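In this section we turn from sequence analysis to structure. A common task in structural bioinformatics is to predict how a protein folds when a small molecule is present, because the ligand can shape the pocket around it. The inputs are simple: the amino acid sequence and a SMILES string for the ligand, here flavin-adenine dinucleotide. Study the lines below before reading on.
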Amino acid sequence: MNIVVCVKYVPDAQGERGFESDRTTDREGVDGLLSELDEYAVEEALKIVEAGEGEVTVLTMGPEDAATAIKKSLQMGAHQGVHVLDEAIAGSDAVATSLVLAEAVKKCGEVDLVLTGLASTDGVMSVVPAMLAERLGLPQVTFASELTVEGGHVRIRRDNESFSETVEADLPAVVSVTDQINEPRYPSFKGIMAAKKKPVQTWSLADLGVDPSQVGLDAAWARVEETQARPPREAGEVVTDEGQGGEALADFLAARRLA
Amino acid sequence: MSEVLVLVDHVDGDVRKTTAEMLTVARRLGEPSAVFVGQGYAAAKETLARYGAAKVYVADDAVYTDHLVAPVAELLADLVARTSPAAVLVASTNDAKEVAGRLAIKTGSGLITDAVDVATGDAGLRVTKSVFAGSYTVAAQVGTGTPIITVKPNSIPAEESAASPTEETVTTEVSDVARAARVTSRTAKEKSGRPSLTEAAIVVSGGRGTGGDFGPVEAFADALGAAVGASRAAVDAGWYPHSHQVGQTGVSVSPQLYVAAGISGAIQHRAGMQTSKTIVAVNKDAEAPIFELVDFGVVGDLFTILPQAADKVQQNKG
Ligand SMILES: Cc1cc2nc3c(=O)[nH]c(=O)nc-3n(C[C@H](O)[C@H](O)[C@H](O)COP(=O)(O)OP(=O)(O)OC[C@H]3O[C@@H](n4cnc5c(N)ncnc54)[C@H](O)[C@@H]3O)c2cc1C
Ligand SMILES: Cc1cc2nc3c(=O)[nH]c(=O)nc-3n(C[C@H](O)[C@H](O)[C@H](O)COP(=O)(O)OP(=O)(O)OC[C@H]3O[C@@H](n4cnc5c(N)ncnc54)[C@H](O)[C@@H]3O)c2cc1C
């Protein structure tokens, strides 16, 4: 079983996130890390190969520092990494991102399963997995909160507000997993040491046969024209309950015509 | 005037409020054409007309619901090719976002997700979205193809504008690859009798501070006619179903009023509620970060404050 896990390097949500002068996300001046939601995809891939056999390749597209996302995944136990790194990629929209990732998956050779997170923690679009399936011509089996891979077949549970669904398909397939699916492991000391020796390949757009004019900010089919920091919320009124806190709350709601 | 395709968000013909909101926006951009996929059009018809659909395309073939997402994207791609719409609007649900993603690639178009507003600008449509857990607002534009936009529920007030839509049944040749992911079972979730979380005007959420007893949270929600939400800590503890989780990995809500009880206000929780119009918190800890967001806060025990507030709300109703 050959599994490719797509992992994204994102600005840390605990820090100050913001934009560059060209209105693309600031990815240089901030602390970044492996998107937490992609840890669930790495964990699921490791569980699958540990229960059977196979190799886990982690794939990221991003700036130099995105190597951090690969490193963390290798420390968790993934076998090898691929970093698509090219100046021309900066500012890519989701359409371009999915193009680059799809070409990189193809270059990985025989792949049985492409695993992704449910959303990145910065763009939070939740569209790249579906786009990858579209581009690769593979079944899209997404938002898995349970996953079974058996006899060349995948089965997932997919929940939404109204339904719980079972979705099935034959391999190869693109599967995205939610944070309900497992509990990602922490890298062990052994894992951290082992990661240092694991192979990481760096591919440029030329290696993938992608024309640079199809990606990046200039080619973006969707782009940001204006950004505005939210004005700080005016400090609200906070009262300490001394027996009348509930009534004060009800009065506030009544004054605002909310109750 | 160009058509604007609106993918109807519904459950077996029960049209969700987002659809009315999308039709309202669509009227500003062109002539709204609703695309109804699945069963139950008879039940949906009146609502679509009331919110101004000039045309309805009905696709009730089982192929669209027996397979995941891909067949609907093929249907919309056909309609885009046929009608050259000014835009395609879908709801910001998991399913519809994925339809939008595939459609963007099929039609060579840009995609913008989670719009809180869409307006016509000098250089095409101007889409407003709220990003980084509500800390920034950005205006974005689609420069290539047909703008494909997913609209965040509860962001744009729905306005009625009666029309008498023409109806057309549509089908497409769905490819084999689009049939590759099969939905082999679908179980409806139990209904709580309360409004749905994403549509509700008021949401009352409980967190770890409830210690597992959601009684006071539910009672206060019922006094306000609200939906009930939960933090991930409460969901992970098994106190409330995951479908009620508010936040980055749950539902994103934008109600008129959001009440957080026994919730500290972690960034991942904020990501799902920060665009609420009015925010209220009840928390024992005066230092809890949730108080940075509130319009009104009470420092104290939710087990005494919520019941007292519920009583007073009932009294005020008289
Ligand atoms: C605040 C913000 C708003 C944005 N809005 C838009 C918009 O409206 N339209 C638009 O076209 N673009 C938008 N972008 C750009 C978009 O986020 C990036 O192009 C991104 O790479 C793809 O979208 P996502 O991060 O939301 O991915 P999602 O679709 O949320 O990601 C799902 C999964 O795909 C995989 N994945 C995604 N990106 C990568 C990567 N670079 N490397 C490896 N795996 C990856 C991961 O497994 C991830 O869990 C926005 C970016 C930001 C920061
Ligand atoms: C990848 C990832 C995704 C996540 N996604 C989400 C998400 O979608 N949604 C989400 O909510 N979280 C999410 N989280 C978790 C988030 O980081 C927090 O851990 C979580 O929101 C905490 O829940 P809480 O506020 O209920 O609990 P706590 O942080 O433990 O807060 C409990 C609060 O209750 C107060 N309290 C205790 N007793 C009482 C009482 N009797 N009366 C009043 N107040 C009381 C305490 O003072 C405290 O402030 C995510 C985390 C990660 C890493």
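Residues A 6-8, 25, 35, 37-38, 41, 59-62, 92-95, 97, 101, 116-117, 119-120, 122-129, 222; B 111-113, 131-132, 140 surround flavin-adenine dinucleotide (ligand 1) (CB under 6 Å). As an exercise, try to locate the residues that line the flavin-adenine dinucleotide site and compare them with your own expectations.
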